[in-house]
Amino acid sequence: MQKNLKAKTIAIIAVLIIFVYGIFGIPHGISGAALKQALAKNINLGLDLKGGTHLVLQVQVDEAVGSATDSDAGAIQTDLQQNGITGVTVTKPDPARPDVIQISGVPADKVSDVSSVLNSRYSARYGISSGVNNTWTLTMKNTTEQDLKQAALDKAIEVINQRINSLGVAEAVVEPYQLGSYQILVELPGVDDPGRVRDVIQSTARLETHEVLGGPWPDKQTAMQSLGGVLPPDAELMQSLPGASNEGSSAEWYELKKIPIWGGTDIRDAQPGHNPNTNEPEVDFFLTNAAGDKFAQFTSANIGKYMAIVLDNRVREVATIKGEIHDQGNIAGGGITEQYAKDLSMLLRTGALPASIRYLQESTIGPSLGADSIHQGVIASIAGMLAVMIFMLVYYRGAGINADLALFLNLVILLGFMGFAGARLTLPGIAGVILTIGMGVDSNVLIFERIREELRAGKSPAAAVDQGFSHALTTIIDTHVTTIVSAIILFLFGTGPVKGFAVTLSFGLFANFFTSVFVSRVIFDANLSRKLHGEPISI
Amino acid sequence: MELFHDVKIDWLGKKWYFLGFSLIFSIAGLLSLFFWHHLPLDVDFRGGTVVRVKFAQKPDLDRIRAAANHAGLQDVRIAQYGPAANDEVLITLSRSATSEAAIDQGRAAIVSTLSQNYATGGAENQGKLDLDNASREGLAQWLEQKDPEHMGDTSDAEVRYQQQADAVLHYRDDLHSGILPSIDELHGLVDPAVLSALQQGAYVSGFSVRSVEIVGAQVGQQLQKQAILATLYSLLGMLVYLWFRFELIYGVAAVVACFHDTLITVGAFSLMNMEISLTVIAAILTLVGYSMNDTIVVFDRIRENLRLSRREPLADVVNRSINQTLSRTVLTSGLTFLTVLSLFLFGGEVLRPFSFALVIGILIGTYSSIAIAAPMLVAYQDWRSQRGRGAALPAAKKARV
Fold this sequence. Notes:
heterodimer; A: alpha+beta; Multidrug efflux transporter AcrB transmembrane fold; Hypothetical Protein, Haloacid Dehalogenase-like Hydrolase, Chain: A, domain 2; Gyrase A, domain 2; 4-stranded antiparallel beta sheet; 18 strands; about 20% strand; elongated; B: Multidrug efflux transporter AcrB transmembrane fold; two-stranded parallel ribbon; 6 strands; about 10% strand
């Protein structure tokens, strides 16, 4: 018994030391300031305490599906032509259904050819059905669509992460937001003016080069008129920025080939630079090898024609193809500033967003509010804890010391856990700590009341303590499990601050179970072992 | 010390009083939910824009309102936030005035309205830096640009000015809740050159934006759905656990008691016209767990006593079990109540709705395990014996795991 007790005491002290280490690490000194600094380093604060911005973004994943079917539609057209089937129209009839491609105008003698081309090449990704008048409808398969959307989300997270890192925001978090579908949660500690970050996140930065089919026209109406009112299915009309074709030109409309020569994913590198003649800021970009080869092939075959450099669906520059261009180009003119050149080249380097982003939520906590919250939270915790401790001492006398020691250890373990796990302490989390203090005494009270009852029934102190603990154990397990159930559900459904609450609550419960069932028991036993048999205990 | 020694209260004999008490509060809450304040939702759920602003002096709400109207802000609501001594104002734009395409518009409009109409000094501050609303990065960059210590564009300068900015913001945020009383007070905290640069090129506007919450319609609806689901799941989780540990009827009784607590707590929010936020939902879920604790302690005792004395009428066993655990129930609830009360009193405005839910919930949760859950067991048994089925309340499962 004695030896056992010693081992248990050592175990408790070891736990204490480990968790104190979890809270403070190894401080540089033992002055108040050094401890405070060590504490700040080990306990991660949530945005609501540290100050910062929290964003929820929606990735418009349908756009990613749309651009996949766009490029497939182009591929189908090419495939059919290569197989000698001409006069076919490949379209996407319904803008609300980006996953549907329609093929019409197939000559009657080519029906089986078309069917075999479609089935051999596209049946893996599309459900293919033929309709009246030799038309076909290709509907993207569900799994393919899901994969595309997921890939778009993953890519968007990766891109946004890189962009934010390049802005130098420390400890930013970019992760899928589980409460919605295809949404992203962004946490930016210390950022209290999210304007610039928003611009950087939101710009799609899709740089493409398109073949120019017609134009320029001063407005969309004129453009449509000169095209005879119908836009060919593989073409699109796009507005340019002023000065796109030559210095001083105004915003105009061009007819461009819908499928780009190369697109956003084909860029290998981009750097801010200066025009060697005018010394104006510009952005120089370089293509990947594969895209460079494609570009060289296209430019050498189309000398004298026009091509357009398109950024985020606006024509930035229209140029005559003078010779073979291999893998580089630049964006210049149009009043590019140094800052814009720097930002744009960063955006191009990190790659285009696969789909555009919509803002759903933005919440900003200023640093002064965070500081006040910490202050108030700490005061409330200390007041609550003191009230409980004093009450326990008065009410249970000797055993009250037990409870208070257990409570203190409870707090140390809870905070130590937070330190080790790198969990975030949020304002509701502090409330969780306070609540755990209140609930922590629950187990102690259960046990003490039971011991008192057993003593009243005439049992010896040792037997009463033994019986008290074992009877109360069942109830303690039950009460802990129910609270853990609540905490888990909170964790699953909650966001930032609420999650922090769930975390402290669960850690607190574990700590509480250990201290009330094990630590408090050891203290009792230590007390009993020093007393003569049958001498009363203070409870 | 002992508060409850050998109590012998006939709890079940008072069940009609309890029922009446619960009915009055539930119905009052329900009436308010349906006909009076309805369910006041926080911006988390409702969507919209909320800007919390602190002022150096007592803010004139009418003046802010007039300025907002003048600036063409639609659907704007302006109210004092927290105790009057805090000089804080909550400026709220409705969801329809918060467009998702330009989510930041409302905030920008509010801030520019305030700085045009409310900032101290007025036109003479044109083009100067507002030190009360400057961010850390913004201030550091401003200093680097002005370069009062003539250090040039070096990385040393960057570090140096960052430190100076930190010193200013520490004084402003950690010691003065975000509002600088005057720039002159920075004397001794920053370099004299930096101080004079600030005195010339910066000003204190006398207001500071403490937090901004902008929620689009989609997220609000999403969260509403999640909150309802979370509450239902947690009740269901409790039911299943109690079913597994006791018997189904125990689980049902406990869940009914918890539902009663939730209803009364939500009703209290409606009666007081306090807004329910995400953290309030967290508090309610915690209460579900807490109220369950109390109920389980009583149930555990009932089960134990049932095994010891099978002949005794159930009502007596239940009464005795409640009395035996009364001391524990009142003590722990009282202690938890103490901690929650300290949270309510000292925890600040942000946590107030959360701690309010806990304060109400702990009182009701403790009451319901005695007054609702336990009598339900007896009522269930009476109902069964009336229908001629087996009379005994199941206590068959063993108490130990």
